[in-house]
């Protein structure tokens, strides 16, 4: 059990609440039942779930699949804010730091959306105001007349500085890839700093952050290999702080698949990740690889939460599981709208 400076009672309370919330998330069997539903039946089912309030609130502005997507994103954002309010002491700070990735995702979505000329409504539909930037802040960014103005008015100075440094080059190349790399390096450096801060409860948080860095680097290794070429941007991508060094990932970008799997398995300890890597000896599409690695990541989080029952681990498990429930439902909605069959759709789900 993880000891905490303010006494274990608040942590026991929050951990118990997170487990109750997690028990109410959609189970694998239910997803498999959804896969075989038509879009109208699936839509009716979602409208009867915990997303009903948001669906009712947004029904005058959206309809069909757009209504489902917006309602689920809004539900996710509100639930994350409730979790922050519920978390005591150091857990609140760790949770805010962890959810900071939504700010990065939302900012990049706005920049790319504006670059591609998408309408404010289309960009807003995929934003999730779950970080420090709330819905009002994101709306102000969306209303700015140019990408430069979005960056100038960003209320998070550290992110604004990172983007500003390379914005001209990004606009010239019509790619925010290098900026995205730098933002996620900043994000994980922030998490590692929090984990090394010496606060009670930080050990479990740090262990998970290191594991997540490995998963993110491994995922991007397979993405780069699928693209068939290593660009200058990708050479700078690897995130420091994981168990596997960036130099090893660089070496493996052009290595045979068997060597990649053997080398990675020597560097990792988590049994669930070892199993996932072994399954990658057979060449698979990138989206299947990502789903497999994400499933391993979630299973490792579950195991860590059992080893550290009154720490941040149960909270992180719920945050991630909730995120993928929303992601799965959105994928099902869009996939059914596009006429994809159940077998194809299943490959895009994280269960």
Layout: helices, strands, pairs:
Elements: H1 9-23, H2 28-35, H3 39-47, H4 52-58, H5 64-86, H6 89-115, H7 120-124, H8 135-143, H9 147-152, H10 157-173, H11 177-195, H12 202-227, H13 232-235, H14 246-252, H15 257-267, H16 271-278, H17 286-307, H18 313-337, H19 342-346
Helix pairs in contact: 1-18, 3-18, 4-5, 5-6, 5-18, 6-11, 10-11, 11-12, 12-17, 15-16, 16-17, 17-18
Written account of the structure:
- The chain is mostly helical and 351 residues long.
- The chain is 72% helix and 0% strand.
- The protein has 19 helices and no strands.
- The protein has helices at 9-23, 28-35, 39-47, 52-58, 64-86, 89-115, 120-124, 135-143, 147-152, 157-173, 177-195, 202-227, 232-235, 246-252, 257-267, 271-278, 286-307, 313-337, 342-346.
- The model is unreliable at 1-6 (pLDDT under 50).
Quick structural overview:
The chain is built from 19 helices and no strands. The protein is mainly α and 351 residues long.
N-to-C CA distance: 28 Å
Radius of gyration: 20 Å
Helix/strand class: mainly alpha
Beta-strand residue percentage: under 5%
Largest sheet: none
Helix proportion range: over 70%
Please give the count of helices: 19
Give the mean pLDDT.
89
Low-confidence stretches: 1-6
* Shape annotation: globular
Total beta strand runs: 0
Order of helices and strands: HHHHHHHHHHHHHHHHHHH
Describe the structure using short key phrases:
351 residues, mainly alpha, 72% helix, disordered N terminus
